[in-house]
Design brief:
The protein is an alpha/beta fold. It is 35% helix and 20% strand. It is built from 19 helices and 23 strands. The protein is globular.
């Protein structure tokens, strides 16, 4: 039996993944346990959970693999500082002590943290992304594209996967990076770097791409083949502590937006402009890769692959018959890709997930789960009032509550791996209700009003509601709502008439599928609003404790956790529940 543990850490979204005989046993992000969003620390809790789920002791591992090569990354950093000297001294003085104290000595750190004496290997950052994209895909042969900020040197890689091998065709190297370009605009628009990029994508449909020409004329030159170069004079990410330079600010007529300040039409237009440029560059790269590789299918990973609007355009216009995108496309997925790369290429394990265009579907539910014997003591400890129901009654009661307008916390089965809640750690509501979007944003998620929500729809009904002719199980494709459904699901229809679609089949998530089917039978609409079970600034919940706490300090009406159903109005008053800003006491009479 061959067991490999993959680890990603020390940039953002640390994670651990256990692979056994070429199959993924568990994959988890450290943030879900530490409760620090995008936690970059060594994923000790995630490792512990993965080994426990796999029934594997640390000395039973055949190897541990880190998702990138620290010495190559340090080489890039030092080369960059030397080329730009004396600029960047402040950044150098801030970064180097951390590198020489910790980040450079990953092998020793792994041995110390895990007590592991076996082989420790290192994969290239974009090799890890490519492996995470291709090996879990249903394709025996496919083109492979990875795009992110930067790994060691690479920012974009084009390749081809076949069987258990991946070969590189071409790459783009630092400082020219589509991911860093998008992140620079994230910073300029006042959102958090490496966290708020999805906010830029969500804001874009509210504006017009009035600055597209300015971006193309000054910031980025794009070839017909999708190759690109940035004018680095407009950016500070090479050596500075900021993403954009004074020249950038002068070009766009002012300094970056202060976080939390009002969003103006100009901000919306800037978001629309960088989104349109990004879509165009990704599409050109994909068309070039289609010609160069001769492959009919495409696999994608890297942070830019989470741009589901661009993905939808690639699906429709790039010339590939189908595409597969790693649900954990960012750095968390690097742990998975590194483990799979070693398992297949180094240990010779068979790849068993492929099978042509309709091969076995990869399931992203790879995290922890809790049974009734673990959930009930937690609820009893809080003095919670609950009912334990059989599945038929549980679904019927939940459907009835959703139909009357309840917002439901839904905690079921294994936790999702990646940034999207796919029906295991979800907040659900009736997509037909025009007021529910603002209600959830303001009273449950505590986030910006422009933020959209995704529809979860029965897979067999997707073409009835959306201009999409295939499954989209990971919420990574945007498609337009059908014209004849215009206005029928307003809570999940974005301002431009599109939606980030999640299709659900019985094989993906059986209980969630039955809930959607039950809602469709009752209402004639097999579509629910689905968003992650968390509040702004916090990771998705992991445990029953976190589920109950979130339920009690937000405007959720119902909590369905395993076989247990809890109604907010029946819960005891005066409970002290830890919240975002400390301890909050719930007043029984207070609602949203």
């Amino acid at each position: 039996m061959a067991r490999v543990l993959g680890i990603s850490a020390f940039y953002h979204d640390s994670a651990a993944c256990l692979v056994e005989n070429g199959q993924v046993v568990a994959a988890l992000q450290e943030e879900r346990f530490s409760r620090l969003k995008h936690d970059s620390s060594f994923p000790s809790r995630a490792v512990e959970a993965a080994l426990r789920m796999g029934g594997c002791a640390i000395d039973e591992l055949d190897g541990v693999v880190f998702y990138e090569k620290p010495f190559m990354k340090l080489e890039r950093l030092l080369d960059t500082y030397v080329r730009n000297c004396p600029r960047g001294l402040a950044s150098y003085l801030k970064a180097m002590p951390v590198w020489f104290k910790e980040k450079l000595w990953i092998k020793e750190l792994i041995r110390r943290e895990l007590g592991f004496d076996g082989p420790i290997l290192f994969a290239d950052h974009h090799e890890s992304h490519a492996a995470s994209a291709f090996f879990p895909s249903p394709f025996q042969s496919a083109a492979v594209l990875t795009l992110d900020g930067v790994g060691e040197w690479t920012t974009t890689s084009l390749g081809r996967g076949q069987g258990t091998r991946i070969e590189l065709i071409s790459e783009v190297r630092f400082p020219h990076s589509l991911g860093l370009l998008y992140t620079a605009f994230t910073y300029y628009l006042g959102f958090r770097v490496n966290s708020g990029e999805y906010k830029v994508m969500g804001l874009a449909p509210y504006g017009e791409p009035r600055y597209e020409g300015l971006i193309r004329d000054h910031l980025i030159h794009v070839g017909d083949d999708g190759s690109f170069r940035l004018d680095t004079r407009y950016f500070s990410y090479e050596t500075g502590l900021r993403m954009t330079s004074r020249r950038f600010h002068e070009l766009f007529g002012g300094p970056p937006r202060r976080p939390g300040s009002p969003l103006t039409d100009k901000h919306k237009d800037i978001a629309a402009s960088i989104q349109k440029v990004t879509e165009d560059v990704v599409l050109r790269i994909c068309r070039h890769l289609r010609r160069e590789s001769g492959e009919k299918f495409l696999c994608m990973a890297g942070g830019v692959a989470l741009n589901c609007v661009a993905n939808g355009k690639v699906l429709r216009e790039a010339g590939f018959e189908d595409l597969w995108i790693q649900p954990a496309a960012g750095d968390a997925g690097g742990a998975l890709g590194a483990a799979l790369a070693v398992s297949h290429a180094h240990l010779g394990q068979e790849r068993r997930t492929g099978g042509g265009t309709t091969g076995s579907r990869w399931n992203a539910l790879l995290g922890t789960s809790y049974d009734a014997d673990e959930i009930q003591p937690v609820l009893d400890g809080y003095g919670a009032v609950y009912e334990r129901l059989d599945e038929s009654s549980l679904i019927a009661r939940t459907v009835e509550a959703l139909d009357r307008g309840a917002v439901v916390g839904w905690f079921q089965g294994r936790m999702e791996f990646g940034p999207r809640a796919l029906g295991s750690r979800s907040i659900l509501a009736d997509a037909r209700r025009p007021d529910i979007k603002d209600r959830i944003n303001a009273g449950v998620k505590y986030r910006e009003s422009f933020r959209p929500f995704a529809p979860a729809v029965l897979e067999e009904s997707v073409a009835d509601y959306f201009k999409l002719d295939r499954p989209s199980p990971y919420m990574l494709l945007v498609a337009d709502v059908r014209d004849d459904r215009n206005g029928s699901i307003p809570a999940v229809t974005h301002v431009d008439g599109s939606a980030r679609v999640q299709t659900v089949s019985a094989d993906d998530n059986a209980r969630f599928y039955r809930l959607l089917r039950g809602f469709g039978s009752r209402t004639g609409c097999p579509v629910l609003l689905n968003t992650s079970f968390n509040v702004r600034g916090e990771p998705i919940i992991e445990s029953p404790e976190q589920a109950y706490q979130c339920f009690m300090r937000t405007g959720l009406d119902l909590l369905v956790i395993g076989d247990f159903l809890l109604e907010k109005e029946k819960q005891p008053s005066g409970l002290e529940i830890a919240g975002v800003g400390g301890v909050q006491t719930r007043d029984r009479g207070a609602r949203e």
